[in-house]
Amino acid sequence: MKQMFCVGNWKMNPSTARDAFRLAEAIAEKTKVYTRVTTVLCPPFPFLAHLSSLSVTLGAQDCHTEQKGAFTGEVSPAMLKDQGCRYVVLGHSERGETDQMVKEKVRAAVRVGLVPIICVGEEKPGTPDVLQERLRLRLEGIPAQTLSKSIIVYEPVWAISTTKEGRGASEKDVSSALLLFHSFLEEEVGQRLGSAIPILYGGSVNEKNILSFLRAGAQGALVGGASLSPKEFGSIASSMQLYEHI
Ligand code: 13P
Predict the structure, then answer these.
(1) Which of 92, 122, 188, 232 is catalytic?
(2) Residues 64, 122, 155, 188: which is the catalytic one?
(3) Topology (CATH) of 4-242
């Protein structure tokens, strides 16, 4: 059975370091028994250092393309590594970045040993051609050695809980999108490397619908809103632990 990934993207939550610590502590307690699941918490930058004493795997929500220099307000991959991060979410649709920018960030992250979690998704449902093109624009040209050290997330913009449509994708939507992802990756980096790259799903994931995304073939999930509830996030991780068909 494959390793699963349960990644919590806290976005700009919670408001204080104290609440962040409590939340991470409660999640660590709920998820530590799920040995098959790599649980990653991605808090806002200022909370990373506060959480490094806990036994949680940390990720960041973004990084810069350079490791240091005159870039006001930015945070480098090297700094994240130093703060104990192992993962970094890149290209989230809420950031509105260009594909070129995302590719440069992916390379910069891998250079210091961070695992990029690269988001790819279309704006409107039922537009597979747009999704195919997005995949190409976002991932084409990233060296095979770099891409094979990454995690890819199918995160349709329309399925994110806080967007206007915000309704989550169906099992069928996700399974047909994942087929596109698998064939793209295998063409890009070869069958052996391509089939080993984990592909997750993100968008309105909760404890009730997680199984449908696993059935669709996702090797885990990028969870927004539900990652702020230890009970719900723990229950999502538990479904991953128990799922036997991947
Ligand atoms: P929701 O789970 O709240 O839809 O957020 C998804 C997301 O944007 C994760 O990165």
Answers:
(1) 92
(2) 155
(3) TIM Barrel (3.20.20)
